[in-house]
Amino acid sequence: DYMKTIIRYYTALLMCQTIRSTKLLSIELGKVVLKISDTLQYKIGEWHIIPILAELLMSHRKVSEAVTMLYSFQNLAERYQDSSGKAWYYAIAIDILLDTSCCIATYKQCENFYLKNSEALGYQRDAYAVTRLYADLWLWCVRYGAWEIADTWMNKLQEVFVLTPHDSMINVHTAIRVLEGLILTLVNKIEARSILAIVRLQSEIEDLCEKIENALQISKCHEVKFNLRKIYYKQVVNPSANTMKKLTNLRRLAILRNDHLCAEKILHTMQYWRCELPPKMASFWLDHCSSGSATGARNSDITLGRFQYDYTSCVLNNEKVYPFSLPLPRARYF
């Protein structure tokens, strides 16, 4: 089929340029594929360019473009009643929430999508979409300390998530989400002085780090994100005086690679760990990304329903992003 061949050609170009880290060209190629599909009402066989394009746009801090693309994609998914496409819509919406505080869809909306489509998702041929959705919902719960619900999502995640050497950049991104959640869980166990859980989590984290490193041998797109989590892990288990220097160098690398979102995250982390952030900025993500649905969460503001930092607010605020503040243990087991 002629149209299918054209779309596959542009998709292949996008993947190649993404692996080579030529992000701006990758973004333009992705837009071409979506434009062809939308204009000619031609369904893309696989939606894998969508999370890649969204991530590329977000790495350049093009929040408005990413959200506009996501809304267009939502229309496509609805038009074709494609469960995989719908899963990607909610997964990417939570991605944006996790990275920026900008709320396109709340946790509750994503949870409701799962509850209404759990059977279809169980037979989903696009495992990447389901895996990302589960990982994001799990990480949201972990950040809020909603451990019982987090365990439910983790059980579902373990049924579908596998990271292999030279894996897709989509799955590597998901793995980095999982890595962050495991480190946050480790922080909780350190504060609770749960020795057995600490040992188990450290083993899981180090095993996952090794798998991610193997997967990153072809593409370096996620190297900065991954290294930030590695620095975080080391600071949790063995604090070092050189950490700020490492973060400074990593931020330079992020800027060099046009990963401006990650550069912002690194700067936020440095300021948070040095206690330089105003309290409202340090807790912004927790204060504004809740949706009143996580029973047992540690933050009482979840049930109070503080206002969301929605897309309109984000645009009016010059697309400013507010990263999550990575906590360090308040008590140690050594």
TrEMBL record:
Keywords, comma-separated and alphabetical: ATP-binding, Nucleotide-binding
GO cellular component terms, A-Z: cytoplasm
Protein name: (northern house mosquito) hypothetical protein
One Gene Ontology MF term: ATP binding
PANTHER family (UniProt xref): GUANYLATE CYCLASE DOMAIN-CONTAINING PROTEIN, TESTICULAR SOLUBLE ADENYLYL CYCLASE
Domain of life: Eukaryota
